[in-house]
Amino acid sequence: MSEEKKPEDQNTEAQNTDEAVNDPNHLPEDVPLPPPSLTRLVTTLATQAMVSMGIFPNPVTGKSEFYLHQATHLIDTIQLIYDKTVGNRSEEETSTIENVLNELQMLYVAAANEKKRRDDAA
């Protein structure tokens, strides 16, 4: 039978986690990861592209920043994976990559327009 945690134990755990995150000498735990897959690879690259387009804040600075050359490189990398895996993908993988590419291309146009708007306003 599992032992139920008391509220004060949970608060201590949260405080320890906060302290660990803010401690530059703290190393993250080596947690088990899900098995690699084509879909997971593509979505990881897509997430990085979205950070580069300012859609998600930069995890280091906490700010939305535009690195459109980096975003282009990541989108092109996903396209390369798509092109090089023809005949070796499941229908689900094909659909996922096509949807990711379409979405990223639309987001790129919006990010480029937003960057231009901000640059013009500065």
Explain what you see.
By secondary structure, this protein is mainly alpha-helical. The chain has a domain at 38-121. The protein is built from four helices and no strands. It has helices at residues 7-22, 38-52, 68-84, 91-121. Helix 2 (38-52) runs parallel beside helix 4 and helix 3 runs antiparallel to helix 4. The chain starts with 6 loop residues before the first helix and ends with a helix.
Following the backbone from N to C, one meets helices and strands in this order, namely: HHHH
Shape: flat
Output the structural class.
Answer: mainly alpha
- Return Rg in Å: 20 Å
Mean pLDDT comes to 87
Major beta sheet, specifics? none
Strand content range: under 5%
> Level of helix content?
55-70%
Total strands: the figure is: 0
Number of helices: 4
Distance N terminus to C terminus? 62 Å
Uncertain segments: none
